[in-house]
Design brief:
- This protein is α+β, with helices and mostly antiparallel strands.
- 34% of the residues lie in helices and 22% in strands.
- It has helices spanning 15-23, 40-52, 63-69, 94-98, 126-129, 131-138, 142-154, 197-210, and strands at 76-85, 100-109, 112-121, 161-162, 168-173, 180-187.
- Strands 1-2-3-6-5-4 form a six-stranded antiparallel beta sheet, sandwiched between helices.
- A hairpin with a 5-residue loop joins strand 4 and strand 5 (168-173).
Length: 213
């Protein structure tokens, strides 16, 4: 099934979240790890391929398998694919500041939307680039958002961190070389999901394990 591609994701972020984003660029970093480390350039290549030719998600996330691991019943169907790239952005846009790429793959799972954002940046922390979207999707004001991003920054790799709303989870992944890589997974809509926190955590960890590029 073909997917629609938006060259630039429109987040509609609150001004407070944008301000928090500007404060949280921070230093880029890499992590030690094994053979499953991912590169910033690898995700950028995936995103460029989608931008040039609308296709299904180029990272083979098996949403149905992730759901089964979390005891979530229902069939998963793929939806839109969206990309954002620093080389398609104006120099003052956040994606250019972070020097990275965002690949968003959408799904429907048993009638509920699920989106998986794969983020890779050369500067700063990958999850911080998504601060405006996390704020909107989880209903976080500037102080709770800052607290959440700090919690994510202190978390171990491959450890999901949920928002208080329980419908958004972030997870850091090991990096090959310079930069930072993470997934942000959003479940449901209107800051609510029918899934439990345990199910959200299990699905997020399973999807992170499927990330290959």
């Amino acid at each position: 099934m073909s997917a629609h591609v938006r060259r630039r994701m429109r987040w509609g972020a609150p001004a407070a979240a944008a301000a928090a984003l500007a404060l949280l660029v921070g230093c880029s970093h890499g992590f030690p790890g094994g053979s499953d480390k991912l590169s910033v350039s690898g995700l950028r290549d995936k995103a460029r391929a989608v931008a040039e030719d609308a296709t299904n998600c180029p990272v083979h996330y098996d949403m149905s398998r992730a759901a089964a691991e979390a005891d979530v019943t229902g069939t998963a169907e793929p939806g839109e694919v969206s990309v954002e790239l620093d080389d398609h952005a104006e120099k003052d846009e956040p994606i250019a500041t972070f020097k990275g790429a965002v690949l968003e793959c959408a799904y429907q799972l048993a009638g509920e939307p699920v989106t998986v954002e794969s983020i890779a940046v050369e500067r700063g922390r990958a999850v911080n680039l998504m601060a405006p979207k996390i704020s909107a999707d989880a209903g976080l004001g500037i102080d709770p958002l800052t607290t959440y991003l700090n919690k994510v920054a202190k978390a171990d790799l491959n450890a999901p961190v949920l928002t208080e709303s329980g419908n958004v989870a972030s997870i850091g992944l090991p990096v090959d070389g310079k930069g930072d890589i993470a997934l942000v997974v959003t479940f449901g809509e209107n800051q609510h999901t029918r899934l439990s926190s345990h199910q959200v955590s299990v699905m997020t960890a399973e999807l992170a394990g499927q990330a290959k590029w």
